[in-house]
Amino acid sequence: MLCDLLYIYFMNETFVSNWKSQVKKGTLTFIILNILKENEYYGYELIEQIRKHTEIEIAEGTLYPLMNRLKTENLVDSKWVEQETGIPRKYYCLTEMGTKTLVQMNEYWKNLENAIQKIIK
Amino acid sequence: MLCDLLYIYFMNETFVSNWKSQVKKGTLTFIILNILKENEYYGYELIEQIRKHTEIEIAEGTLYPLMNRLKTENLVDSKWVEQETGIPRKYYCLTEMGTKTLVQMNEYWKNLENAIQKIIK
DNA sequence: CAAATCACATAGCAATACAATGTACTTTGT
DNA sequence: ACAAAGTACATTGTATTGCTATGTGATTTG
User: Fold this and answer.
1) Tens digit of pLDDT for each residue in B37-70?
2) How far does the CA of residue B27 sit from the closest CA of chain A (Å)?
């Protein structure tokens, strides 16, 4: 009896936490491009910004490869900036293509949001 | 010049369409559970329901494996229903655990939605 | 002076949407 | 009457991507 409850609880926990990770998968790129729309940020700072804005925790092992992908895709550009003290920081900014892509993403997101809201209602 | 434009256009197209697929990745389970909350549906019908509600196209090769996963996870149950004519249909319904999971998903979704709306604003 | 934080990076794993392909029955168009 | 399209299920293999684990090295804090 207790066993059943624990089973259901843990199955549920792992499923939900896995689902959260899956939802991130799509939205993360979208969130990052939106944040970069306003300002240039370096990697570590981006993680903090996202935590502050969305309460979503992103692992560094997630962000750095993602930023490299975005650079390969020509959606962001990056430049090293030397610091007076400490390790130089790599700042990212949106490219023209990144901006255009973001517009399309925003449209799709609005549609999705509306659709889901209708279903949940 | 034209070459550049075409390059950017297609890069952008494939990136965006790929991104859409990534966004689906998380939301699809969520959408399906929400739809099953109201009614029992069979697979093919679910695809139509989703298309009607969200204008999102789902491939059959996406849906059927997904439903099997959801059944393995004990979020949905299924039963075969014979038809007077044609192939029997497999109807899906939410389990108790599916309902509970859906509640948690709804909460997470609301948070995410709010967070993104703040960022986009 | 050790621990925590800052700041970058990579390799391997797991999850999942899709394309392609297959089966089999029914309806529709000509 | 028969081909085409639609209904309804299913599987295999691929690509993408977030995460864990791990590593480097500098700086700040207790």
Assistant:
1) 989 999 999 999 888 888 788 889 999 999 998 8
2) 6
Q: Residue A39: what are its φ and ψ, rounded to 5°?
A: -155, 165
Nucleotides of D under 7 A from a protein CB: 7-13, 16-23, 25-28
Long-range contacts of A89-93 (CB under 8 A, 24+ apart): A89/A42, A89/A43, A89/A44, A89/A45, A90/A42, A90/A43, A91/A40, A91/A41, A91/A42, A92/A36, A92/A40, A92/A41, A92/A42, A92/A43, A92/A46, A92/A67, A93/A36, A93/A40
CATH code of the domain made up of A27-120: 1.10.10.10
Q: Which residues pair with A90 in a beta bridge?
A: A80
The residue ranges of every structural domain in chain B are 28-120
Task: For strand C, give the nucleotides within 7 A of a protein CB.
Answer: 6-12, 15-22, 24-27
Q: Are A23 and B108 in contact (CB under 8 A)?
A: yes
HEC string of A7-43 equals HHHHHHHHHHHHHHHHHHHHHHHHHHHHHHHHCCEEH
The CATH architecture one would assign to domain B28-120 is Orthogonal Bundle (1.10)
Distance B54 CA to C20 C1' (A): 26
pTM passes above 0.80: yes
Which chain B residues are Cβ-neighbours of A105 within 8 angstroms?
A: 16, 19
